[in-house]
Design brief:
- The structure is a single chain.
- This protein has nine helices and twelve strands.
- By secondary structure, it is of the alpha/beta class.
- The chain folds into two domains: 96 residues, Aspartate Aminotransferase, domain 1; 241 residues, Type I PLP-dependent aspartate aminotransferase-like (Major domain) (Aspartate Aminotransferase, domain 2), CATH 3.40.640.
- The protein binds pyridoxal-5'-phosphate (PLP).
Length: 365
């Protein structure tokens, strides 16, 4: 540290310099995060000091968190769902597995996870000492339900299905998986970190939520397609009492018990997430998702015209290609199978897609 502080001017000119090293999202096709919606930014600023780790001091913020959970529960066809705002999909997935590991009380518990799952399950299984049984996917990168069923045994504490894979934007056959889970008495956790705020707004939503009796819990990330500020994820569970399994006593706080993983938690981002859903409503979210889906179709069509085949036809706004090179200045990412991966987030406007296609075309010329 400096012995005496530097001037505000000097400080902020340093920060601006660093800020310029950051990307401004303009040519970013690789991210599932996006520029936050202006109402999220305004709401976040308004609640900047609110700490949900001590909800008795921030009763208003805590009640907004409850409203957010209520809205998401209702959106997922279960108004009585329990839940709380996490730091993102990683924490939501970890906490869901933590609940099921405790419920099972097996000495060698295992979790069944498709090979397409997000790497957060690897972290969760490591932390919780769970055996992770990986299930292969079919040629469309969706979980093979036959192979899934074979892996279930008496020590299985949870099955994981993905409603919108991070890499390919496809949805596992959740109805079928939920049926198998329900018949086998094994809870199904649906990782809808990305898809949870896309699928309900599609013209023809595929079943993935609490409307299916086998679905026990869902992870969804407002800080992705919910356009909130970072960090805001949400874990919703069928029975709110399950969170009692995670409760610890909290001396010296305004509440007696806490089931969250984090202690101090950002209230600002949670209010931001709520603000976007309230402000846009169903019709606004549908319009955003429709735009992202149209852009996805346009990019796939444009890339195929240029000779790059799609890796799969996605369910959501993720497009993947058999392609090797990227025009300079653009950020895309690569899947574990080596496909070029792009995500048509709200900041990826139609003119950005056309610019990208032009640059890809010129790169080939
Ligand atoms: C993004 C994502 C995660 C991880 O979420 P974080 O917010 O980065 O912790 C988990 N699962 C899926 C399917 C995701 O797309």
């Amino acid at each position: 540290m400096h012995e005496t502080g530097i001037s505000e001017e000097e400080l902020f000119s340093f920060l601006s310099l660093k800020k310029r090293e950051d990307s401004n999202y303009h040519h970013v096709l690789s991210s599932m995060c996006t520029v936050p919606h202006p109402v999220a930014v305004r709401a976040h600023q308004m609640f900047i000091e609110a700490n949900l780790g001590d909800p008795g001091l921030f009763k208003g913020t805590a009640s907004i968190e409850e409203l957010l959970v209520e809205r998401i529960g209702a959106l997922f066809h279960h108004a009585g769902a329990g839940g709380y705002a996490t730091s993102g999909g990683t924490e939501s997935n970890l906490q869901a597995l933590r609940i099921y590991a405790k419920m099972k009380e097996s000495r060698r518990p295992n979790v069944i996870v498709p090979e397409s799952a997000h790497f957060s399950f690897e972290k969760a299984c490591d932390i919780l000492h769970l055996e992770m049984r990986t299930v292969p996917c079919d040629e469309t990168f969706r979980m093979d339900t036959g192979a899934m069923q074979e892996r279930i045994d008496g020590n299985t504490c949870c099955i994981v299905g993905i409603a919108g894979t991070t890499e390919y934007g496809v949805v596992d056959p959740i109805r079928e998986v939920a049926g198998i889970a329900h018949d086998g008495g094994v809870p199904l956790h649906v990782d809808a970190a990305f898809g949870g705020l896309v699928i309900p707004f599609l013209k023809k939503p595929m079943p993935f939520d609490f409307a299916l009796p086998g679905v026990a819990s869902i992870a969804v990330d407002p800080h992705k397609m919910g356009m909130s500020t970072i960090p805001c994820g949400c874990l919703v569970v069928r029975d709110p009492a399950w969170f009692n399994l995670l409760n610890v006593e909290t001396p010296y706080l305004t509440v007696k018990q806490e089931c969250t993983l984090a202690g101090t938690r950002s209230g600002g981002a949670v209010v931001g997430a709520f603000a976007v859903l309230e402000y846009l409503g169903m019709s606004g979210m549908k319009a955003v998702v429709e735009g992202c889906m149209k852009n996805t179709v346009r990019l796939i069509e444009g890339m195929e015209t240029l000779g790059y085949r799609r890796a799969v036809t996605p369910d959501l706004n993720v497009a993947t290609f058999e392609a090797g090179a990227v025009p300079p200045g653009w950020r895309v990412s690569w899947t574990r199978r080596g496909h070029m991966r792009t995500v048509m987030m709200p900041h990826v406007h139609r003119d950005v897609i056309e610019e990208f296609l032009r640059d890809v075309g010129e790169m080939n010329a």
